[in-house]
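DATA SHEET
Item: assembly model
Revision: 1
Owner: S.N.
Input lines:
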Amino acid sequence: MENFILSGALNQINGRKDSMLEIKDLHAGFEGTEIVKGISLTVNKGEIHAIMGPNGSGKSTLSKILAGHPAYEAMGGTVTFMGKDLLELSPDQRALEGIFLGFQYPVEVPGVNNAEFLRMAYNAKMARQGKEELDPLDFDDILDEKMKLVGMDSKYKDRSLNEGFSGGEKKKNEILQMAVLQPKLAILDETDSGLDIDALRVVANGVNKLINQDNAIILITHYQRLLEYVKPHYVHVLSKGEIVKSGDKSLALDLEAQGYDWLTPVPK
Amino acid sequence: MPTTLTDTPSGAESLILDLHGKYLEEARPSEPFKGLNLASVRRFETLKFPHPKHDLFSFVNAKELAWTRFQLQRDSRIGKDIVRDHVYPGCEKSVLVVADGTFRPDLSDLSALPSQVKVSSLREAVADPAIARYLAETIESENDVFAAINGAFFNDGLYLEVEPAALVETPALILYISSGSASHPTMTVPRVLAKVGRHSEVKIVVKYAGAGGNYFVNSTQDFILEENSKVLYTHIQADPFESWSFAKDRVHLNRYSRFHGVNVYSGCKLARRHHEVHLEDSGAELKLDGVSVLTGREQAHNLVRIHHEAPQCASAQHFKNIVNESSRSSFDGSVIVNKGAQLTNSDQLINNLMLSDDAHADSKPNLMIYADDVKCTHGSTVGQLDEEQLFYLNSRGLSQGMAKSLLTRSFAESILGEIQVPAVASGLRGILSKKLEANHA
């Protein structure tokens, strides 16, 4: 961790920014209603960004627009990911480019076997990279290792995807998918919400084991609690669809102490 | 679909009557078949082809079928190679071939079936007056005009009897294979009668397939379950598109007997199944499930009539239909709870998955209850693939086609998962995947 933060900091000092994601004046919304109202944000390799904000501030809209949810539309601005116009890509193309959205409410898919689904997703990525796809036996070795990493019982392999999982198991399953797919940029949308402290530690531990100098994470969270376990380089406060304040992790502590009320968008 | 009574195919009956005259002359059926044929043709004349408002044909347009001038299949072109294509692993030595309506011992292999399972042609079996009497009774009470046509033309078939107290592990596979004909449409009338003795248990798989197209397979199957016996039944309709595939399955359930049927349809120009079940004595249980996977202009229709005739019986039906492109499915199901059938438990659920704007699915769940202490449910749903599920799978790198195919398979899985013969279930999963991938590619 320490090395990792240091290298991020060095990148900043030397001005060698390895830009991964560049959001410029993004406006976006849902069913014609603008919710994100001009967000600009740059995420470089090796960085962890936390986006905090009260309910309705546009946090989830931002995550969904980045992942390409069909019900959300970009109304202005640009998003560039690894040099590509992200908004032009379909959700599956974005995933294959290396974007991963950890869902706030992971979807239950009855009848789709969890392990089979993970293997399909893994193989889609392998195929994209021109690598050999894995048969169930070979994939099982990878899966066992990753399940251990996120502290998940192997019985969840043969269950239907998220069906009947507890809230904590669903979130762990998201981190498991992230571990299997090894994205370049993971956007974790309120992964900490609804978790008890043990589950939170397990999830945070999984996240910490997965970050390295070549990937980046955007943590979207309502609470400061997660940031005790996963240390962000930057904290941004979102309010009414705009980033009203950015700072380092001490900002998160201020928010915890004072709430969000002191931060409101500056009238234009 | 015709909507007025003027579309009634009146007069089309003469085509069948002409064919029947020719049949009596050429086939010269022996007794008791001749008598059964004549009784049945009279029944046909009474029933007539359905007008569009007929309550057994609410969603089935049989006009084209009725006006098709069929010939009877004379030369069967079914050989061992075709049979081999349709045999499931584990059934190689328990396969009964009914080729163009005739049981063919030369193409069948019964070596893995225990001696408690007796197989013979219906011609031999009718020597038993009880069997001949049973067949006569079915003809008297027949309410389905197509089953009456079957009765008018059949003079052979397959008889299967399981002795009492036999636990038959090896599934018996009955293959209905039609030759078809390039030059003219042909009709075949397979007939199977299966009697399962007291305390016996057996797995039966039936599959309808064709070597060519342009045929009308019009079969009738009767299952008689004696006290405390159990039948695990899988029914697969896999005819080529250019065919009409009709079947009537009649099930009689005695005290504490259980029948679990899973019906899988891939559809054709017109596929129709009529399930008639009688729960005749207390403690009998029926579970009837089905799934249709249709595309192009394929059709598959289910008509279900379940008669609760005794107290404390249970029936549960779950049918799912997946309709894509211009295909159409229907489910018309009634549960009739007779007076005196107290403490009946009955559930009926139909789920339709619509994959295109032009696809069509009709559901008519119906309850007729004449007893006052029963628990019955029925319901029907229609829906598309879930957008949130699709996005979730997309967001993990699965293409839209892969995600749709996966979700559609998962919709069918709750029915396929009920199939008690693993090799059959996995074979069907494979075929289904191929069909869906071709669709979503």
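QC remark: The helical segments of chain A are 2-14, 59-67, 91-97, 114-128, 136-149, 167-181, 197-210, 250-258.
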